[in-house]
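*** Fold description ***
***
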Amino acid sequence: MHTVITFIIAIIVIVFHYWACRRRPKYWYVGGIIPVLWFGLNTILFLNGKIHFHEDWKMLVFPTAIILLMWIEGYQASKKKEIEKMKAKDI
């Protein structure tokens, strides 16, 4: 049961992060909610001794890279869409 709940929460977080990353460039910080929460959670776990970087580095590095790459890619996509809208208005 715990695995199902964890999976559902993970899906919700990923969908929210994907949606938040694609907001207009004016609201770039909305996509940063999940990365900030991820860094905060990892910091708390590290300070409490639950995470040891030399043992858990894969668990820390790869999700962090994926989250940040989703944020960057979403920002670039929304910026491109905004530029296309501005070009369409100019013509």
Notes: The CA atoms of residues 53 and 61 lie 10 Å apart. The chain has a mean pLDDT of 86. The radius of gyration is 17 Å. The chain has one domain: 2-90.
